[in-house]
Amino acid sequence: MIETVAVITGGAGGMGLAVAKILGREHRVLIADLQQSRLDAAQAELKDLGVNCDTAICDVTDTASVSALFAQATGLGRVACVIHTAGVSPQMAPPEVIIRVNGLGTINIANAALEIASEGMALINVASNSAHMLPGIMVPTRAFRHAFTDPERFVEKVLKRSNLMRKDFYKKGLAYAFSKSFVLWYSRQIAADFGKLGARVLSVSPGSFDTEMGRLEEKSGSADMLKDAALKRFGRPEEIAEVLAFCASDKASYLTGTDILCDGGVIAGKRG
């Protein structure tokens, strides 16, 4: 019997590791990250739980690195799902890096996933509730369209829009919101291409979660958003992991081309 594989980018991080623990009950997991030390620690934790786990160094902004990741994955078995959690937040990087990792990285992962897509496979892209906060008129959809023909121009155009803000704090925040808006938009746009192969693609938009990245963003105001939320707390990694795992499973086999908002009611509260 051919082994099934779950590929998880950012697999050594809070959300990635949490979803690997769930998907590892049914699949062999291949976790990808930038640092081998983090991968080794995550692999050891997963193996203690009885999860069959492999690791890969992968820079999602580099097409050769992404190609190597998927070559490794297909060498292990049939890829059942790809959970793309790799990303950076405003506190972690300047605007261009944010757009490259969150936007260009999503393009690279999706292109590689489409090449090996088969009946029943699912690609789940992690977006953010920040994408739901932008008025539609602010979303640079015309710039997003370059993703299909000239990804570097896509980065250039979105960065230019982000740099209209004067202060670095706002530039990074806008770059992040734009990059995650792109993840929503792009996941919808490519759903038909995956559907032709019997595969699915959708996005999941988390709010504030108790992860290393989530707590880092607490300093820039993410905790303040909870004042308007229905649930006045940070989410737990295992809560978003269950959503991601469900979306990737056969139980969600008719779910594609859409976004799942999981933010404890932050957006609902802001919309009143």
Automatic annotation (TrEMBL):
UniProt keyword annotation of Secreted present: no
InterPro entries, sorted: NAD(P)-bd_dom_sf, SDR_fam
Entry annotated with the keyword Oxidoreductase: yes
UniProt keywords, alphabetically: Oxidoreductase
Gene Ontology molecular function: oxidoreductase activity, acting on the CH-OH group of donors, NAD or NADP as acceptor
UniProt similarity note: Belongs to the short-chain dehydrogenases/reductases (SDR) family.
Stated name of the protein: SDR family oxidoreductase
Protein source organism: Spongiibacter nanhainus
